[in-house]
Amino acid sequence: QVQLVESGGDLVQPGGSLRLSCAASRSIFSIGTMGWYRRAPGEQRELVAMITSSGSTNYADSVKGRFTISRDNAKNTVYLQMNSLKPEDTAVYYCNKVPYYTDYWGQGTQVTVSS
After folding, report:
1. DSSP string of 16-85?
2. Residue 93 and residue 9: Cα distance in Å, rounded?
3. Residue partners of 9: CB distance under 8 A and separation at least 6
4. HSE-CB of 16 using CA atoms within 13 angstroms
5. Are strands 57-59 and 46-51 parallel, antiparallel or unpaired?
6. Whole-number Å distance between alpha carbons of 115 and 113
7. Is the CB of residue 94 less than 8 Å from the CB of residue 6?
8. Residue 15, Ramachandran bin (φ over 0: left; ψ between -120 and 50: alpha; else beta)
């Protein structure tokens, strides 16, 4: 079992930046591929970025070129750097393994992009 705690969400203006963090209660290296997911109001949860244990990354088309996922295995933490934020990025952001494991969902962190 693992607990994942997301943080860093905030209210930000369009074009702004945020850095999200996901702290794990045990080794993320042993978990393997990690990802950031988001759920916008009235929408289904979607995977926006993923990173393997070795550092290979992949992104949803909607965030490619604006978001950067990274991981620090020594700190058991996964990050999501979000630049050039748009109102459509407004959502609750979660981290989990890829594919997700139901028991790993945390509370998420709210990102609101609005002027």
Report:
1. --EEEEEEESS-HHHH--EEEEEE-TTS--EEEEEE-TT--EEE-TTTTTTEEEEEETTTTEEEEEE-S-
2. 8
3. 18, 20, 92, 93, 108, 109, 110, 111, 112
4. 17
5. antiparallel
6. 7
7. yes
8. left
Give the whole-angstrom CA distance, residue 62 versus residue 67. Answer: 9
Contact 35, 95 (CB under 8 A): yes
Exposure string over 24-61, b if 16+ CB within 10 A, otherwise e: beeebeebebbbbbbeeeeeebebbbbbeeeeeeebee
48 in Cβ contact with 36 (< 8 Å): yes
Q: What is the pLDDT along the chain (115 residues), one digit of tens a residue?
A: 889 999 999 999 999 999 999 999 988 878 899 999 999 999 999 999 999 999 999 999 999 999 999 999 899 999 999 999 999 999 999 999 999 999 999 999 999 999 9
